[in-house]
Every structure is written in structure tokens, then in C-alpha cells.
Batch of 3 targets.
Target 1
Amino acid sequence: MATQCSSFEVQGACGRARAGLLSLPHGEVQTPAFMPVGTRATVRGLDNADIRATGASLVLANTYHLWVRPGHRLIEKLGGLHRFMAWDGPILTDSGGYQVFSLRDRLKITEEGVRFRSVEDGQYRLLTPEVSIEIQEALGVDVAMAFDECLELPADRDKTLKSTERTTRWLRRCVEARTKPESTALFGIVQGGLEADLRVAHAQEIAEMDLDGYAIGGLSVGESREHLLAMAEVSADALPNEKIRYLMGVGHPHDIVDSVLLGVDLFDCVLPTRAGRHGQAYTSVGRKNLKNAKYSEDGGPLDPGCGCGTCTTYTQAYLRHLVKCDEMLGKRLLSFHNVYFYQALLRDLRSAITDGDEAAIAGIRAMAVVASARV
């Protein structure tokens, strides 16, 4: 299947790490890139001007949640998701496959699809590969993810194999269900649990389908960091070099940087905004908890090396005051800083990759390790 509405170009490399350009109907994305998560068509606590100010160009929304509320047909009637949320940049939607994991106590999986009982209204809904594609095309997003089965770990080999084979069958149904390949790209998802050979075989099998891009799924669901990186590595190695590689749901700064060094291009995670809402900030000197009393009289910035509006305007003492008072402004300022920090991290990493500067890459990796650790 030829690419019709998206393209990816590797513009530089240093070892396995790549600097690239992803071109989509609503704009270009320089990679490696991090997508802020806007599950319900909003990145929690941030408006679109905030998102742009962080340096983000691509955001993620969720098929399942928008299907349940307010409904894809309503969004389509109102002009599509871009107009609905007033975001003119590219949008990628998760297919609903992650909810197979996160809502596993409220669903039943069959070959046809997944029958959910909605947490919002108690209604039963059947999400199939065909319905997932219908929803995403109605939303008018730039990238639709194929509907897959995100397996709960640990899982034995037989269960993993059956789940992976079902994901392949569902992917083929997603391809057949497409009606708008000229406006919405389709990414397939590599599964295989913690079985390296199954991941390699699955990546090779779906690569033959010549999709617009490929994601590495079924990770960051409770496995060890060692397993995460090992499975990301074997999956990335088995995917085509000329297509974008997206590691879903990851994560902490050092996980992202290490995955870039393994050849991954695209990331998303709720951590930056979730941490911000809980008074935590990723900084170049460690992950800070602003609830701690040691910041109560600190007149310095959150991160002296950061150029975001939070760090250049407010003191740590003031931010702690907002956090302790449970003020909305505190949640917004810390969320903004965290997303900005992630964007700056990958922007610097992209520059170092483009320059082939191994020393700079090593320095960025060391800083990411520090940023991920609590202080």
C-alpha cells in the first residue's frame, strides 16, 4: 500500500539514533518528537497557545473516549476534531487498543472485537477494527492507529502468540476498512509481549503491508525498564528504516532518550501533565516534589537552565504555595514546564544527532537520567 497523505524522511543519524521529518496533512513534525496527550481533545490544564509555546507540534487524542463522549458523529458534524478543539496542527489518535488493557475489568474480547461497558454511562459498546477506523476517519485526524490487543503482562507464550496473531488479523481488517487514505494515515502496531522472537516476527510481518508508519505497543504496562528497552530494541531493529517508529506510552526522560538511541522517533505519555497536576516537576537537577517544605522559602527558579515561562517568571516558593493551596494555576504552570522540558530535551537531542555529536548526546542522556530521579 503506497503512502498517500504522509511521508517520513531520515535527515540525519548518529549510530541508531535518527533525526527526521514527518510530513502530515496539518503540518510537519521534526523528530525525535514527544506528543502531549490530549485524551479527550484537551491536554489537561493547557490551552492550545500553551501547547504551541512548549514547542509541541503534534498532539494525541483517544478514539475510545471521544467515541463515548461526545461522539464521533457530533465532532464530524461540527467540522472534525481539529475545528472542535481549535488545534490546527497534526493530531494522532490511539485506536482504543490501550483501553483493552486499562479497562480490562469492564470488557470481553472476541475475534469480532472488544465489548466494553462504559465507565461514563454504563452502556455496552462493541469496538471492532472497522468501528475504530470509522471513528478516526470521522474525526478527521492526521494519523489513525490500527486497533490492536494490548496484552496484560505477564502473559505466557501461548497467550501472547494468540494475542499477537489476533492483532495481525485486526490490522488487516483496519486496512480493508479505510475509506480516506488520502487524508488519514494508518500506523500498524507491533505486539508480542516480552517474547523477543514473536516481536521480531510480528514486526517483519506487518512491515510487509507497507503502512504509513509503525508503532511499538504493549509496553510501559508494568514491565521492568530492562524489558521495556529490550523489547523496544528488537522491535525497532525489525521495522523498516524508511518508516517512522513510534514507541507508545513511554515515559520518563531517560526512557525516551535511551529509546531514541535505539532508533525510535516518536513518543507520547501522560506523565508530564499528570506529574504537574500532582505538584511534581522534571528538571535538569532531578524530579522535584513542590509539596516538600524545603521549597517554601526558595526564591530561585524551578530550573535555572529552563527557558519556559514558569521558570523565567515564578519562584519555587510561589509554585509551592500554589501547590499546597491546590490552586489550578499551580497545576497549569508545572504541567506547562514539564511539557516544555520534554520538548527542549528532544530538540537538543535532535540537534546533537544531526551534528553527529556523540559527546553532546552522552551529556543529554546523563541529564535525562538525573531528570528522571526524585530529589
Note: The longest strand covers residues 7-14.
Target 2
Amino acid sequence: MIYGSVCSGIEAASQAWKPRGWEAAFFSEIEKFPSAVLAHHYGSNMPDEPYSQNGVPNYGDMTKFEEWPDHAIDLLVGGTPCQDFSIAGLRKGLEGLRGQLMLTYLAIARRYRARWLVWENVPGVLSSNGGQDFASFLGLAAGVAITPPADGWKNAGIIKGYRNAYGLAYRVLDTQYVRTHRFPRALPQRRRRVFVIGYLGDWRRAAAVLFERHGLQGNPAPRREAGKGVAPTLNARTKGGGGLGTDLAKANDSLDCSLETYVPEVTGALNTANGKTRPGDTLQCACSGFTLPVAFDCKGTEVQTAIDGVAPPLRSMGHLNSHQNAGGHAAISGKFGVRRLTPIETGRLQGFPDGHTAIPWRGKPADQCPDGHQWKAHGNSMSVNVKDWLGERIDAVDALFGEEGCAA
């Protein structure tokens, strides 16, 4: 499988798919630090440099795709910017410059005629502009006119599409429930995202990737016991990203998540050697694009470690809502103060190997790589376990039906 990646970030897709033997034909990333991560791991060029000849080329600005070289790719993957669709953003939708990049993604797909499409965004895209923005995206990909449902877009659906365009399936997936052979315990954060899978000329293959028979029986996801509350949401000074739809976020649930001003005391790492937290340990603030399963009633009871060897054991009794905040930090609060989550921990929450973003940066060695750059890169990334699950399913569908397209 040969794929092209746009809005590549630090390449969750490659982390998931390289072990499957899939190969990247190109990346497209404009941010300096994520581009440096790509250069470090994949021999890519920086956006303002000549295209790499010995690694995966980074073509930079995706709006300049008409200048890119030709490629024969099987799949195009991208998570276009979500700020214009997020409930925490300005909700400009397709009127925003970043929102329009989802149409640029489809223009790139049209140029390279990839068999498969894998696109990701926040659940807010389903309601943006009364659902019309998502309808425009689906309609352009499928080659048919689409009107938003009168009662709004549901969490999953299928678009048959024109026979020479893409057949589509979409579904909201939550990181904490997506398990694969590589991630048998999933990842300990709540991260709901809309995924659209497209296959050229055949909606059935797209549907076969996203939908499983045992997942279509109407059985609800596990819920909290009656009477259990949830932690307050945090949405102060957000700049897009994240978002859980409208189930937890409330307009007045705002706190300043700059911990230097919120809680000045900073402690060392919480003791996890014996698999226990200190009495009173609580997840207090998560503002780097993450939403962690949170234990707000830890009393030193021995429980399963949420992030092996680093994070304190957290029981999933509720959830904190969090959004991308360039100045915010992820942190854990204990009885005696607060410590921030380390880049190793935030990387593990997304499924990246330890040290993936700890690279030499601006003349400093890897062990002095700024935490803030790493937090932001992890918060803006996709979850590796979800990409791994999609890769498993796509491989299975290709093995079952073959790689030749068929008209629906």
C-alpha cells in the first residue's frame, strides 16, 4: 500500500502503518517543529528546503498541490485543521481559511485518484453551518448532491456516491475504545473524532472498513453508574482542536489552564512504584488537546496503571473535557501540589513510542527539546491506535475483495 499524507503533523499514520509494510510517497506539513520530527525520523526536508531525495519528501503547503510531482498512490490520508469546526473555535466552517482545506484535501484526492480516502476531523464538523459543511464535503467526494438530514447528521452513515466517484462511509470513533493487536488495551483518553473512509467506485468497501457486525446491534457503549458525576470541563483560551460535541462542554465551564497562575505549587512525579496513588490524587487539568479518563476519588486503592510506568493509576470514573491551548499544559494534581504531564506521557496517550518528539532542536540536543513543542505536536496529532485499526480493516478488505476497483 502506497499512501500520501497531508496535514501530516508528526505522522500518526506512519507510526500505525509502517509496521504493516505500507510506504509513504509524500508528506505535507508546514509547521516547523512537526516538520523537524518528520526530518528526524523519515529523512524528510523542511518546508522551505528542496524536496528530499533520500527520504520521504515533505511538500509543505497543501494548497500548492498542483505544483507537486506526480505519484501513483493507493490511499490519501489527512486530518485537515479542525479549528473552524470545533465547538471551542469560531465556528467559521467552510468560510474559514482552515475549514476550506478539507475541500483542498478532496482536490488532491481527485488529482492522484487514490483508491482509498481516510479523512478525520472533530465531531463539530457534523453540525457546522447546520450540517451543510459536512454535506458539501461528502457531496464533492461522492459526486452527488447531498442535503443535511432534517434532524442532523448521526454518528455514522453511508453515501453510495456516483459510480466514478467515491463511495463513502463515516463514523465517530473514540480513542479509548479502539483496540487492535498492537493496542489491546486501547489508549487512556477520551478522543472522539469523525472518520470518513472512501473507496473509488464502491461504497461497500468503505462500509466494510468502518462497520463491524457485532458493532451494529444497537448495544450502547458502557456508561457510568447512576449518580456518578463528571469532572468540570476546561475550555479557557482555547484555539481550536479537541471537542466532544456538546455532551460535556458548557459555555461557563472555563478555567485558566496556565498552571503557573492557576496552581503555583509544582511537585515531582507521583509515586507509582507500588501501583498506588497518594490519597487525594486527582487529574486536575489537561489542556494540550487531550481528554483523559480521570479518577476523582483515588484513595490509594491498587488499580491498573493508566500509562505504564509513568502516569499514576487512574480509574476511569469520569472524563475531563479539554481542548488545544498553545499556552496550556497537561498536569496532574495531588494533595500537595501539581505536576505537569511529561512529553513521554502525552506521547503515550496518543500511542507514540517514548521519545518520538524528543529531537535535536535549534542547536540544542534531544534531551533539551522544549516540552511545549512536544505537547502541542501530540495534542494536534491523531491517535495511533485508531489509525492502526483502520489499517487492519483496509488490509482485510483488500485481501477479501482484491485491489481492483468495482462499480457499485
Note: The longest strand covers residues 166-174.
Target 3
Amino acid sequence: MKFIPQSRSSDSRARTGTISTEHSDIPTPVFMPVGTAGAVKAILQRDLQSLSARIILANTYHLLLRPGMEVIKSSGGLHRFIGWDQSILTDSGGFQIYSLQENSRVSERGVTFRSHIDGREFSISPEEVVDIQNILGSDIQMVLDYFRGPPASKKEDHQALKLTETWARRSRERFIQTRRNNAQFAIIQGGLHEDLREESLEGLKRIGFEGYAVGGLSVGESGADFSRILRFILPLMEGDKPRYLMGCGSPEEILTAVEMGVDMFDCVLPTRVARNGALFTGGGRISIKNSQYRLDPRPPDETCQCYTCRNFSRAYLRHLYLSGEINAAVLNTLHNLHFYLDFMEKIRYSITTDKFAEFKNSFLNNYHKKE
């Protein structure tokens, strides 16, 4: 993997660049659609290609449980198994340790957990997470990490970051031993404590990785804390390596993070809310199930050129949703992902033309208007 920084905004830390992997060249800042179990929900790989998606995210934990590594290995890796010829980033499962704490035990060796599917017990080490991702054949691997999440104490956050650093060192050693034509990113922890965030980053830098991610945010902290931690840690991250903000999803959060220098994003938000009848538009988010759209002949967004907006009305999409039709999820998801990927393209263009601040202000003014 190679990362080449390119344009830089003159009035912020916003920047463009290109991440090149064996499978694709990825323009940054980039939003990665989330395909947790090897599929982005309610959309075909063909349609992701048509939206110019160059990378998706899959999850090691979920793929380990189902279908299992034997199935994916026999298929020649995850790319062939899911029919996706662009890049794949695989998360390590650290967030699942956090979100399923009642079913997991953490030690220096690794994690023991019970499957949320059938209750079977699994035990995996940081090294085994690397081995699993090698079977998957992902272009970018994330190391196994650990965080407590709010409202953890500073002592708990410090213990978590030290364990994350220990695991990261062991993960790096295994990655180098088994290295393919791919990359490995480490994850900065430390909760909402600036000194711990710096300690975590410096420890990971000493090990050395192809990229670094900020973890443990977008998990319930305030907007002020979210911005404060990013504002502090991003200038300390290496400028010639990709900066990845994990799990960050709203357009407002993305603009804030891009302004501070983030290159990579992922979130289930656009696909999850699509399945629940919410659509992103330039004028803000709308809930298509509302009665005001019953007779509305307009597309979801009159400025959008996606397949959904070019062919269907709000009234029809409301009808599909209320009828429980599968096509409601499909068409809503197609629109929301088009909105996000087009949004990122506009961000990149605004940075290249040195008009990012102007674009940000204009977007937010329109996005927060009431219909």
C-alpha cells in the first residue's frame, strides 16, 4: 500500500490524497461503506461499483463466526468469495469486544468470547487476528485493540491503551512474519484524556505502521469532546500516513474531521437509517414514512442524480416503506450511499480548488434548513 498526500486547504488541515492498494486507487478523504459480514446491506456489489466505491469495510469478528475461515479460504479469499474486485479494509473486532462486553473476557493473551449467534466459545489472540485477516486477504488490516468507552475512569482507559499497545506490538511482529502486499493500521486509544491519547500514539509510532486510526470516539461522547480529542491528536499523527477516524458517520462530523485532517471514514449510518426510512438530502435528513409525503411527486432530492431520484417519487418510496417491500430498503440505501459518496467527491473537489471552508459553510447552511 502507498499513500500520497496531494492538495492541502490553505485555511485548515483538510487535505486530499490517494491510497493505492493491490486492488484499487482510493481518493481521499474517503467514506467506506460498511459490509460487516461481506455484504453492504440492501445493495449489490454491482451498484457499489456504479457509485464509484473503491473500498468497503468488513469485520473479522463476524466473518469468523459466519461463514467461518474454512469457507472463505476454500473460496480463495474474501474478494473472490463476495465478488468484489476493489479494496477491502477489515476491522479486527475490537469494537465488538466493547459492544458485547457481557459475552467476552479480556486478558493479555487476547479475547475469549461467546458467539452472539449460537453461544459457542471462541478464544483469539492478536496474532490469530492477523492470521484470520491473512486468510481474508484484506488490503488493509486493523490490529486487535481494546477500549472501555465512556464512562470509563482514567485508570481504566490507561490500562486499555497499554493492553492495546502490547497487542499492537505482537500483531506487528506476526504481520511482518507473514506479510503480503497489504498494509496494517494501528488504533489510538486513551478515551477522552489528551495525555493518554498522546501516550497511545507515541507508543504505536515506535512500533511503526502503514497508517493510524483514532478509535473510541462516536460512542456516546459529547460533540465538544469529540472535536477536542480530534483537534488535539490529529496534528500529532504522521503527515505521510493515512489518518482514519473509525465509526464516524454524520455529514456534520465528517466535515469537522476533514477540516482537522482526517483521510478515512466508515459508518453504518447511511445504510442503517435507509432501512428505517430515513433519506439524506442536501436540505437535511427526511423521514419518508411521514404523512406529508403521501402525495408528494418530487424525488427525495431534486438535485440528486442517483437511480432512485431519477425514477421514483417520495410518495412511491413512502408506499414501499409502509408496505414492507424489500425495494424500500434497496432504493433508500442506493440513494443514501450515492449521497455520501457524492458528498465526499464534493469535499475533495473543494479542497483541490482551495474552497473547503466555503463548501462547508454552504453545505451546513442548506443542510440545516427546515423544509
Note: The mean pLDDT is 95.
